[in-house]
Specification:
heterodimer, A: 385 residues, alpha+beta, 10-stranded mixed sheet, 13 helices, 57% helix, elongated, B: 229 residues, alpha/beta, Rossmann fold, 6-stranded mixed sheet, 4-stranded antiparallel sheet, 10 strands, binds adenosine-5'-diphosphate, binds magnesium ion
Chain lengths: 385, 229
Amino acid sequence: MFMLKLIIRNSFRHKLRSLLTVTGVAVAILAFGLLRTLVGLWYLGVESSSSTRLVSRNAISLVFSLPLSYKERIRQVTGVTRVGAMNWFGGVYITEKNFFPNFAIEPLPLFDLYPEFKVSNEEKKAFLLDRQGAVVGRKLAKKFGWKVGDRVVLKGTIFPGQWEFTIRAIYHGAQRSTDETQFFFSWEYLNETLKRTIPRRANQAGIYVVGVANPERAAEISQNIDTIFKNSLAETMTETEKAFQLSFVSMTEAIMVAIQIVSYVVIVIIMVVAANTMAMTARERLSEYATMKSLGFKWLHITTVIFGESLFIAMTGGVAGVLLTFPAANIIERELAQFFPVFHVTPTTTLLQLLAAFLVGTIAALFPSWRGSTITIADGLRRVG
Amino acid sequence: MTVEREMEVRLKDVCKSYQRGSQQVPVLEKISFEIARGEFLALMGPSGSGKSTLLNLLAGIDKVDSGTITIGGCEITTLGDSELADWRAASVGFIFQFYNLIPVLTAYENIELPLLLTCLSRRERREHVLAALEVVNLTDRMDHRPSQLSGGQQQRVAIARAIITDPAILVADEPTGDLDRVSAGEILNLMDHLVRESGKTIIMVTHDPRAAEKAHIVRHLEKGILLES
Ligand SMILES: Nc1ncnc2c1ncn2[C@@H]1O[C@H](COP(=O)(O)OP(=O)(O)O)[C@@H](O)[C@H]1O
Ligand SMILES: [Mg+2]
């Protein structure tokens, strides 16, 4: 009880100093939390992808496509339930700044392959009936104020021309982590148009999304698919959607590692700053600690007082940082939705933040506690006046 | 018929030196003396002669190189750090030149501090603190922080803190060194009162001849050697 009183009063002794330290810790913990969330997000796409989906692509590179004729042959592999041709469209809506992922995909297997996209039956029907129809994510629709029935024009980059679509369905994610910023339209629309404009690029699928009934057999099925096309003109490379996405992620992995390092560096910096402040504070109070020891208090008491103050300040900053993370994440999610469709702070991140604050408080108290509890009373008292 | 007075403090061949760089600098050389219970002793001597060092040794906050110190029948030179801390809490009261109060605690809380190491209840502690405040005549200032008190008042708080556990001996290192004449007089009267009324043994280091006058015995320390009285 008394120790608590002493700890709290000591913490408020140099109000400005404590306030600055608390602010520093809060900002560091906030930055740490946001950076961790960013990194987590990068891998989220991978984690939320279904392992009941495989992706077959051209073994040479993603730049090369696969013949349409492969579709039937893949479907005949045992264990395969559905196959859908898909192309990364790369269309631009008005300006490049409005980036969002858009794909051409075969409409029939779309909803079976992606059960996490929730669409009402009427909208689903409407989409299937309109060759120029599009299905868009809820967040994307909200961002541009699109409603079912609206016409949207995308400027093709990979496939030149102005492409006109009618929004027929808006999907909701089954989970919080489901990406609601994607744009899908009928692969037939793309293919039919190409037949007229650039015939040599028609009847080619960028990739095949392959549904399997039993995820445990994914490796075996992938191998069976690739064996069929061995030694053909376009060999396939089939892997789980997760592995497929990882191959994108690994390109940017170096950046992610760098960001991760920065997030730790931020903590180390604030640790050093806090340690310096605590050392300064403890130095000023050496004679008080010596006085307490002369009265019969022992090193454990002194250590408790110093650790208590350090942890009190660090945890106050830490909790403030955690509380700031949520509104900050909301602002990022709202303002930068095209880059971060779900900027969601996980409980793990919050826990790591609090742990980091605790670590800062502990490390900052180490040297002062050692000093305060080992200095002889005679030496400590000499520091008076 | 001679009455053998009980000796409260006995020092025998106490030596102490400090390490300064690679050199061993002797501060106290073979100090031996005794103080009877209820005595008020003043220790005088030039600056740097080792007065504070001697006081620290017999208050158990510094350790001898050789020799023995026995206080109230307890040979404190044989005690370990933790035992020594317990012994200090129970047996010695400290009065410092600069009062050494904890700035964030009120007068009341400063006086209560040593009692927190005892098993007294909150109510019992309160009774003790109020009684001590009465002795030093500061009852009306008990909720003040040290910074809101004059030097003399702070030193009275320090005295109240020193006597709160009812120790047999009080050690005071230049208790009036930082005070004006009037306040110094009050402090000395208070110490005199404690010797007379409560039978405390007081050992006081001082430069002030008027302070030494109050003492029953005055000893002089010079260059680490105790002069014959
Ligand atoms: N911790 C220490 N380390 C080194 N030298 C010390 C230490 N404490 C005291 N001394 C030296 O011992 C001598 C006596 O000091 P002190 O007992 O404080 O003298 P006084 O109180 O009589 O002025 C001085 O020369 C002082 O510099
Ligand atoms: Mg001195």
